[in-house]
Amino acid sequence: MKHHQGRIEVICGSMFSGKSEELIRRIRRAEIAKQTVQVFKPSLDDRYGIASVNSHDGREADAVAIEESSDILNNINGDTTVVAIDEAQFFDNHLVEICRQLADEHNLRVIVAGLDMDFRGEPFGPIPALMAQAEQVDKLHAICVVCGNEAARSQRLINGKPANYNDPIILIGATESYEARCRNCHKVPGRPADK
Ligand code: ADP
Ligand code: ZN
């Protein structure tokens, strides 16, 4: 069944906040409602094509891995009514315009999941602009692994210690990991005074 009006929904929050879980839940419910759903995610590791959305608790949904946001438009099937996009923070800013076109011109329901902040606590890619455009924004929270309060931030750790503000995105030979943390427990050594 086609929608009469498009809409944009954003599911955002820190790592481990349940974004993928919630996206998978909305995909399943749309399928139960006999909607035709297409799921996309960025192909960060050069493997295009068949992929899946995976939550930390093991749930998954089939997805198509694409290189850039404009590939979404090129891959939309005529009978699709719902477009779901996971890990959307890794797409270029053109994603904002693509989602607008899908909602405005194609009358599709667009569900976007992604991190709203990077490990520094700064706005991440196209997500903040998508939040502004969306009809519905859900900001989910994880649990801070240090103090047990609600966590809105993602702590980057290099060899077990908080990553520096200026540490490169790729660190060869280092063990990198992420934790969910609250504002108080989130540490970014080397953050410039004006940030
Ligand atoms: P996201 O897509 O936001 O990274 P997922 O949907 O993949 O999150 O995973 C959420 C699940 O991760 C939770 O339901 C829970 O089982 C698990 N989890 C692991 N660590 C945490 C944490 N610190 N806070 C909350 N949930 C956590
Ligand atoms: Zn905390």
Total strand segments: 12
Supply the CATH architecture of the largest domain. Answer: 3-Layer(aba) Sandwich
Bound molecules: adenosine-5'-diphosphate, zinc ion
Question: Quick one: CATH class of the largest domain?
Answer: Alpha Beta
Quote the distance from N terminus to C terminus.
Answer: 47 Å
- Give the overall shape: elongated
Class derived from helix and strand content: alpha/beta
Low-confidence stretches: none
- Mean pLDDT figure: 93
Describe the largest sheet.
7 strands, mixed
Main-sheet strand order equals 3-4-2-5-6-1-7
Q: How would you describe what is shown here?
A:
By secondary structure, the chain is an alpha/beta fold. The protein folds into two domains: 7-141, 3-Layer(aba) Sandwich (Rossmann fold), CATH 3.40.50; 150-194, Wheat Germ Agglutinin (Isolectin 2), domain 1 (2-Layer Sandwich). It has four helices and twelve strands. The protein has helices spanning 19-32, 70-75, 94-104, 127-133; strands spanning 7-13, 37-42, 49-54, 60-66, 82-85, 109-115, 136-140, 142-143, 150-151, 153-158, 161-162, 176-181. Strands 3-4-2-5-6-1-7 form a seven-stranded mixed β-sheet, sandwiched between helices. The protein has a three-stranded antiparallel β-sheet with strand order 11-10-12, with no helix packed on it. A two-stranded antiparallel sheet has the order 8-9. Strand 10 (153-158) and strand 11 (161-162) form a beta hairpin. Helix 3 (94-104) runs parallel beside helix 4 (127-133). The longest helix is centred in the first third of the chain and has 14 residues, at 19-32. The mean pLDDT is 93. The site of adenosine-5'-diphosphate has 15 residues, from helix 1 and strand 8.
